[in-house]
Design goal:
380 residues; signal; 4 domains; alpha+beta; 8 helices; three-stranded antiparallel β-sheet; six-stranded antiparallel β-sheet
Length: 380
């Protein structure tokens, strides 16, 4: 439904016409006259009331609410916005004189990037070097390095960093000289956006009928904000068919979902599923997707900016594929044309994992962007 809104001048004009029509004598309503001033003051009040009415109408529907209004709308039903997620991963701490000295790294020890993004070592009692007696991770004499789990201190995507970005010890530890991350951190996420909250709301309502597919999906979605997932009904984790059983595959955007995330999802699904029904929660089978292409752009366009934009767009498009989905070879050219940020004249020499074939759909498969090589050629 569209609204018949009026501007200030339209309100004034309408009032002048109406007043003259209702008066047998000619009214003097020129600018600056008392009558014109009275009409304009009333029109200004009408404009404000029109604005207030629009604000009220926006707040009465979730589709048009924003920010705290979204929170209050879903809060009336008992639903809340999902908070941001801290990036989780592992770092490798190394000692140069490892034959002469041992080390104990306790939870809470901090490491950071050159841009001051800080992480702290977290407890993992299943780690092979965890010592209950010292309440920390022990690097014995003769062992050069330890690979330990860490968590960002602050929630959000700022905790997602590239390989080698973590290079500084925030806390000095005897027997540890250097630190680095051998894998990128990619599972941190910001607080749930308004669009994500609106999308999850119908699923949350449907989940009130417990033990349904919607209830299981809602239980997974509510665990944390950055999860993609798939539920395979009647199927075991190895792909075999089994009645009264389902498998949940989750992915947090990294190439290795942390164990604590799996445990949280398992506990959430356990509280929702029907009595007597078996299930499993597992990581996806990660398939690294490598892309190569040559993109020809117009002369005068910024080549490096185009290449950076294309690498980012291709990586995001691959990562956005659903668990178990295929990835068509033809999509790469489409993404190149729309994601470069500059006019693209042609896209050639496209390779998807070294060939020109689609990536077929596979149960439990999650696509992870690998090496994306884009060669930019400028016309002329």
């Amino acid at each position: 439904m569209s609204f018949s809104l009026r501007s200030f001048s339209a309100l004034v004009q309408s009032a002048v016409v109406t007043a003259q029509a209702q008066c047998a004598q000619k009214l003097t309503l020129d600018i600056g006259t008392p009558g014109r001033a009275l009409i304009e003051s009333v029109a200004a009040l009408g404009l404000w009331l029109q604005y207030m009415l629009l604000q009220i109408l926006c707040r009465t529907r979730l589709a048009t609410s924003v920010g705290t209004d979204c929170d209050s709308f879903v809060g009336d039903f008992g639903m809340t916005r999902l908070p941001g997620v801290k990036a989780l991963g592992s770092v490798t701490m190394t000692c140069f004189s490892y034959d002469d000295i041992s080390a104990v790294v306790r939870p809470g020890v901090t490491v950071r990037t050159a841009s001051a993004i800080t992480y702290q070592v977290v407890i993992d009692t299943t780690h092979e070097h965890w010592s209950k007696e010292t309440a920390g991770y022990v690097r014995p004499t003769g062992l050069a390095s330890l690979t330990l789990p860490v968590e960002a201190l602050v929630e959000g995507v700022q905790g997602n960093v590239a390989i080698g970005a973590i290079s500084l010890m925030g806390t000095s530890v005897a027997g540890i000289d250097i630190v680095t991350n051998l894998k990128a951190f990619a599972n941190g996420s910001d607080q749930e956006t308004d669009a994500q909250l609106r999308k999850r709301f119908p699923l949350w309502l449907a989940a009130k009928a417990s033990a349904s597919r919607a209830a299981v999906e809602s239980a997974v979605a509510e665990t944390q904000n950055n999860l993609s997932y798939a539920v395979f009904d009647g199927q075991q984790s190895d792909g075999a068919t089994r009645s009264g059983y389902f498998t949940v595959v989750i992915d947090d955007g990294s190439d290795d979902v942390p164990e604590q995330v799996l445990q949280k999802v398992y506990a959430s699904v356990e509280a929702t599923k029907a009595l007597g029904v078996g299930f499993a929660v597992q990581r996806p089978i990660v398939l690294t997707v490598n892309v190569a292409m040559t993109v020809r752009i117009a002369s005068g366009a910024e080549a490096e900016a185009a290449r950076t934009a294309l690498v980012r767009a291709l990586g995001a498009d691959i990562a956005a594929a659903q668990i178990g989905a295929s990835y068509p070879f033809s999509r790469l050219a489409y993404v190149a044309y729309v994601g470069a940020g500059v006019p693209v004249l042609s896209v050639t020499d496209i390779l998807l994992n070294g060939s020109q074939n689609d990536i077929p759909a596979q149960t439990s498969q999650s696509l992870f962007p690998g090496t994306i090589s884009v060669q930019i050629v400028q016309e002329g």
